[in-house]
Amino acid sequence: MSSDIAFADDNDTFRNSQQFQDIKSWTHEHLLSRIEELGAEFGRWSRASIQQFVELELDSFVRLQRVPVNDREMLLIADALTKELAGFGPLEDLLNDPDVEDILINGHKQIYVSRHGVLQRESLRFNDEEHVLRIVRRILAPLGRRLDESNPMVDARLPDGGRINAIIEPLAIDGMSVSIRKFRKDPLKPADLVQLGTFDATMAQLLEIAVKSRCNIIVSGGTSSGKTSLLNALATFIPETERVVTIEDTAELSLGHAHVVRLESRPGGFDGAGIVSIRDLLRNSLRMRPDRIIVGEVRGAEVIEMMQAMNTGHDGSMGTIHASSPRECLYRLEMLAGFAGYQGSESSLRRQIANAVDFIVQIGRLSGGQRRILSISEITGVNDNVVAMQELYRYDPVVSPDGQERDRWVSLGIAPHSAKVTRFRQTLQREGGDARA
């Protein structure tokens, strides 16, 4: 076991050495010359053929140039060159690693990776800025997106459901900046989140009843707190007989539901023409006979249409918002509506928010990277011109005798007041079902 670790460490040491970078760069130039000679024929080769071609050419090059490398180092260089020609270079292993959530590139020498909510610097690096740009353009090519001086920023959805954001110099001062957000091929279900400790089984029952009784839910939280994953999980409670329309800036939701229509906004061209906003899509979705509307993230003028939809027959709709607490979530809804040109009074806006939103689920990322639901709050109305709410559950960890912090959620012992939940319970009782929560 220890010999395997030492072997892996030796490999990493060599990969991170200047010698490795230099040899890879020299042989890459040689391979590009040979590919030019092959012309269109190379484009038809399989990955296995490319790998064989790389190994043969590398062996020949090393012998002729008397490059001082052993067989193990040759294999490492051949593997890197194959990824360079047929894949995504230094990013390939990270893109294929199921534990990697985010890949952040700050110039060609710095790559950071988030695993299980914890950000760490990787030992990998690119040769130079041109190398980073070449790999990113290869990722963008099948998407039909450009990244150059006339279009120095790009935000795009990847074929596997992830997304990439890139910005080049001179806008990015210290070198090209790239952010890649990955998503699981099999989205987490509520039972998975319970097992991971995001919330407990009792809270899962409450959320299930809230979704099935068509309550409108806002998932609130900070960046990378798990809002999208939680929204995906909540959507699994939606009955199969309902039609769901999802609206997002960059499509990230992957609902395990039979009848979903996915809509994605369009940023428009370089001159600003052809923009289709979330607000445009929300207005159009109301004519698409949706049972529920799910907005990936509420961040602008679409907040007015979303609240109107929630108030006019589209109960059970959901969305996420960037906010640090349930009260802050309400303030942000007010602020966004004000920016969107809401014409009514402050009190009428607050009544509309109180009528539209039934529950706010606050989720956060702890210092150790764990995602936890911090609060489940119910909106109960408007009192003295303030939107009133009651907290049903609160995250309140305890320190065990061994000094470890343990998850704990405190129930305040208050049953939801929502008429929708009451009607749902009554229906279950009439049908002889399970009237939980």
TrEMBL record:
This is Pilus assembly protein CpaF. CDD domains: VirB11-like_ATPase (cd01130). Belongs to the GSP E family. Gene3D superfamilies: 3.30.450.380, P-loop containing nucleotide triphosphate hydrolases (3.40.50.300). Residues 85-362 form the Bacterial type II secretion system protein E domain. InterPro entries: P-loop_NTPase (IPR027417), T2SS/T4SS_dom (IPR001482), T4SS_GSP_E_ATPase (IPR050921). It comes from the Bacteria.
